[in-house]
Amino acid sequence: MKLIEDGLELLGEEECWSLLATGEVGRVGITVGALPAIFPVTYWLFGDAIFFRTSPGSKLAAATSGAIVAFEVDDYQLDDRSGWSVLAIGRADLVHDMVMSLAVLDAGRPPLADGRRTSIVRIIPTFVSGRRIVHDHEAGYL
Amino acid sequence: MKLIEDGLELLGEEECWSLLATGEVGRVGITVGALPAIFPVTYWLFGDAIFFRTSPGSKLAAATSGAIVAFEVDDYQLDDRSGWSVLAIGRADLVHDMVMSLAVLDAGRPPLADGRRTSIVRIIPTFVSGRRIVHDHEAGYL
Known about the structure:
The structure is a homodimer.
Chain A: E1 4-5, E2 8-11, H1 13-22, E3 25-32, E4 35-46, E5 49-54, H2 59-63, E6 68-77, E7 82-94, H3 98-106, E8 119-133
Antiparallel strand pairs in A: 1-2, 2-8, 3-4, 3-6, 4-5, 5-8, 6-7, 7-8
């Protein structure tokens, strides 16, 4: 039984995590100086958390230190109007534990951009939701 | 003279608008029930504003009505580790003026998903910034 709302299938949590695992670039939604902002990051999963690297002392490092953040990944194909998105919300923290840092880095991937992104940010999602585009002809029971 | 920070070239406002004009799917950063959220939307530019459609009464419609929101567009190529992102921040509003709605729709594009997305949201950016990945060999003076 699919849950469909406004042309979007609502995905279960397990499928959301599977899709999160397929992505490489995601977007972090934070607040900087009382204003909303979105920054793309190269991310990976490790355990039940999302990890990315950033520069020590950067706005992104500051804004994700102890804050509740949004994290979004999506993939769209314009040619056949298909695609999905996953949204995770949770507390972000800078990883200070050296042993954990090494384990996390070992499982991770380097950022696309050069630069000294030597701080590791962890997001522990407490809420995960996802949506996939379905067109009427795919959902015969609509 | 390029401004480069952590492997990212900081783009001028004119180039940011040019890149915004090339995209079709962007992401809106909003606050829903005191929590941050990011939702992908099919968008277009008209005049000096960003427009997208959403369902009347939806969370997205409510959260973008009179709020300051973030809007992000990016494009990355993993194979050669290149890409760019643009972030716009500004006040969002539901468009109520029928004449304006028709003009805006005429310049616009339909959402990728089916569904009754008959409300138009306008974001008037007051702040636009952009970044492009540059690797050391492209920036000989680094």
